[in-house]
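Sanity check

After download, print the first record. It should look like this:
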Amino acid sequence: MTDFPTTTRRGPADPVKALMHRHRELCERAVDPLEIAAGLEAHGVTDRTAARFRHRDVFSLAEELYARVPRSAETALPARELTHPAAGWALWSLLPGVVCLLAVTGVQLTTGGIRLAAGALGAAAFAVALTLTLRRGPLRAGPGARPVARLCAGWLMAYSVGGDGLLSDALRGGPDGLWALDPAAATGLAFSVAPAMWCAHLFSVQARKKLASSRGLADFSGRSRPLLLATVALFVGGLSACLAVAQLVYGSGAFAASVALGVLLWLARLLAAHGFSAAATKVLAAAAAAELLALATVFAGRLPGLTLLGRPVDAAVQIWGAGAVPAAVCGAAALALLARAAAVLARASAHCDQ
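Expected structure tokens:
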């Protein structure tokens, strides 16, 4: 580490001293200058701001802060240990898929009231398993996570299982009793939790390595965006494999809609895990509202004088099938979240505490 002269910026002529005291805690626990740069970036310090402190960019300013603030090895080691989460979550990631498989089997082997009870019990068990799984490992949400996001995600998953059947029955004048469910979507999405966790871990580890080896914030941003896109592609491959196997077992289903939903939920959780839950919540809420609106317009179209309300959804289903509605909604929402993720996860501040 380069030693900075300490005689040229002392007393009133030292513009860095006030900044050093303002961010002393950040500087003392940092394990490298780029972590300080990431913290400064999170507080709104830009290269233009750094110029007022007689530095060409934020990274150069962070190097001086790192050199001038004393620290001990005891304060630096815990921060570095955060990049190596326990491997136990890798086994936990299989739990939602196993529980969902048992629940689907129980529903298929029963009839009448017992079938309803088995379905309700299986749904509750899956919710518990998923909650326990997401509370550990690389997809655990940050402190800013919002309960409304869970409600919206729950609705989207419920629609993927039974929404297409309900929509089809509603367009035919029903539903008359229970409508068709999609066990392939339920089981495939449940088992995709495993590749979701593994891909999130891979992204976190690789981003942290790039954070340590980059020589500036712009350098890190340029290297992290291709990493994010490659990780998304890898997850899409794992998700598609899970859904394809499930469809081979249970028969055909809404493959495109399930892929779009899986990517949407994964990106939302990835953003929440890195402290950007607000954007994820808004997009999930918009997608859930769009699906609910599509169903509502079909039922409202049965009322006298409101026939036109249900015609757009009816026309889309007649041309592309019932799965076109969730595919379009979740696909558009996933693209919006991908654009947001490419912007915010390219910041060093999104990874400095991972």
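If your output differs, re-run the checksum step. Summary of this record's structure: The two ends are 24 Å apart (CA to CA).
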